[in-house]
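User: Can you predict the 3D structure for this chain?
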Amino acid sequence: MSLLLRLSIALAGGFALNAAFPDRGWWPLAYVALAALWLSLAKARAWGGFFYGWAFGTAFMLPHVWWAHEAVGAIPWVALSVASGAFYGLFGAGWCHMRRSGMMRGNVWIEAPAFAVLWAGMEQVRSVLPFGGFPWGRLAFSQLDVAVSSLAWVGGAALVSFAAALAGGLLGGGIEALLRGQVLTGVGAPVAGVAVLVAGIWIPLDSQATSGELRLGIVQGNVPNPGLDAFANAREVTRNHRDGTLALMETNPGPIDLLVWPENSVDYDPRTDDASAELVTESAIAADAPLLLGTNDYTPEDGRYNTSLLWTPQGTVLDTYIKQRPPSTSPSATSRDASLPRSTG
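Assistant: Here is the predicted structure, written as structure tokens:
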């Protein structure tokens, strides 16, 4: 297989992996993408594996984090994509080194689980390094509406990614076996991959009965200028969300149970900024419902908290949630936490 063909397969696999995620949500392409990566790495040495893996990862991340282009501009978007793609390059190098070592002896039934373990490990590392990690685009996140997602009950996103990568590896190994004339393995490996994917059906998930309904009003205010310039329009963002709320209630007056604004919809904390509080309260009154909004709390000495507030039409805070790291990481980032009330819907 020529370099150009390997590179083409790797790039196609990266683009296919992106299509497995929302908005398209063509989740079976995740296994096709991993099979394409498997084939592009076949018989490659470690440096070749790094190159093809990096190409695969960059082709995946460029469209997958397109929102970064809108949020911060072209250069940071490309830099983030290329840097994230390097983790897939390290995966490719590691996989090629393992495969060429001879310890798996070309046995797809050993190779595919090793491929999946290495993939899941790469995702775990990417989720914590560097600078706290960037878990965006974990394979598990493409499998939300599939039986295999039930494995999250047992082992979280890591186990779901492992299972999906195992299915992709078995598909790639099966295709490779067919190309070598090994029909039994070529047919059996993909069938085994399907069995892995449907295993989640037997996970005993609790499906509690629900009653009633929860009516939400959701507003996305936006700003006229994408990129870093958007961060200079703080009050405009809040006014846009207020205007969007008024427009929503005019066209669909409700009633609603909860009004929802996104993260950073109110850059100036309405608990300390009167102008923001006025806009937020006006919106909650118009909706005649509590408003769940995202803001920033600059009171801590070591930085800021990314905070959600549940704001009432009376202009008071019913409850708060402060984004935090799990307790196993930085203690300073876990010092404050309050859960929002739960509603049955």
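The longest strand covers residues 291-297. The longest helix spans residues 152-179.
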